[in-house]
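Quality-control log, excerpt.
Job 1 of 2 completed; input and output follow.
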Amino acid sequence: MNVRRQHISAVALTAVTALGLGTLTACSGDSAAAAGTGKYDVVASFYPMAFLAERIGGSHVHVTSLTQPGQEPHDLEISARQTARLEQSDAVLYLKGLQPSVDEAVAQSGIGTRIDAASLTTLEEHGNEVGGHAAAHDAHPGEESGGKDPHVWLDPVRYAQIAEGVGKAFEKGDPAHAADYRKNTAALVGELDALNTRYETGLRNTRNKVFITTHAAFGYLAERYGLTEEALNGLDPESEPSAARVRDLERMAKADGVTTVFYETLVSDRTARTVAGDAGLRTDVLDPLEGITAKSRGTDYLQVMDSNLQALRKALGAK
């Protein structure tokens, strides 16, 4: 087994050399931080993980994301260069169950510190029964129908739990800067607590509690704040809803006083606009924060979450 791991690392290093990635930090044996040769080198699977790593690590870490801005993270297939990058890092921060290719690459890598965000909080089942109503669910590769919903970062409380776990992992992996990691973690958790309070206050008194999305990403958020998410699709943002599902949602929208069909920035809004047009509803953006682009309503997690709150307040008739 050790021979195989060494072979993978050698291939990875060769790939780095061949691709001319001279700016990447390659570590052998001890971590870069422990050896005093550079920053603690963290590979994050996609934006919500990179945000945590950057905020908690501060000036002591170098963070690389496997998912590029504007790329749909569910569809990520890791390249040889990214495999090499992963092999030579000090730590990987990922969310098991969201990106099968990342899960496989991490499992096969020889990396010492593997931080699975899914293990730092509790995951639940959403998709088949979103907010208590039946919804279509088309699973991604590696996601069993009715399996655990990975979109935990959209619940500020669970995201804060993950942040605390990441902070502890950084302290253990790079003990020389443990005090700063603790301080940065506490500051971020405080900001997430304040965000949770804004959501609780902002969504407490609304005309209705039901919202429609194209992608069943908001189950944790709905559960946290006493709302019901009705999704055109299941956990797969690219799948097409059935005609029966569309008819059910149109009837529900009329009965529950729903005003808006939400779509997201990284996926086409065609389905949302078609359904909204047929039902006489508005469309708006509710961002699942799987990546930040020029179209995002904010430059980081906290800003976009605040924009989501305002969109929900408008759609739900907040008082």
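Job 2 of 2 completed; input and output follow.
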Amino acid sequence: MAGLRREPTARQVRLGIELRKLRDAAGLTGREAAAALGVSSAQINHIESGLSGVSEQRLRRLAAIYACSDGKLIDALAVMATTRGRGWWEEYRGTLPTPFLDLPELEHHAHYRWDVEFLHVPGLLQTEEYARSLFSYVNPEFPQDEVERWVEHRMKRKVVVEGPEPIPYEAVIHEAALRIRVGDQTGTRAQLTRVLELSEADNVTVRVIPFALNGFGGAGSAMVYAGGPVPQLDAVVRDGPNGPVFIDAAAQLSRYRTLFRRVEAASLEPEHSRDFIHKLTKEL
């Protein structure tokens, strides 16, 4: 059908999912919602699948039809429906896989960000050299210009923590990620130094989980947690075999919030974490 999106973004899909959740909670079928709104059931399906946009007026009418009284959620959904700006990541469309463009869009709209990493320094804290070594090793078939495109993309993503309007950011990093030499000794020292520098920023908190911690079974809880304008619009991102996997189910979000708090509680306090990283740097 003309006018439908060929490849909706994760944000567009998420808006549709949230509208579907509201309809399900109201106990209405797509046909019933379409009749109440005065559109075809196909149009409701296209909106809920992210293939078609929805105006703010129509979105608010749907919320009323679904008897949703959560004004903050409705307002947040209205922003999602009407924000159509093309971010910097669009310049990579067609050259990088779509999920890797959905990630910076998610970050751009996040109100805060939590990272938990066990094997690598979090992407938002990486130096160019570290990222280049990582991409080159994982993708040995990539020509150098493609490696550089990935590195450039990752460096631009750091605007959310280092740009003019940085968001609150907390990273919990296992000692393993700090000790693994993705590059050479000099590059590893530079990476640790960069983590220390960024940890001094007012919006950045870095915590370390040392090898010596007893009773820690959370090594499988690596995650990116992006806070939305309301908790219902939070999102978790985890690595999948074909790129980032986005998680938005309420029960899963609750689970990962709990996991993060457990990992956070097990880690060293920020000042002790800085001392720990400084000691590792001096050892190199």
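Post-run check on job 2. Residues 10-26 form the longest helix (17 residues).
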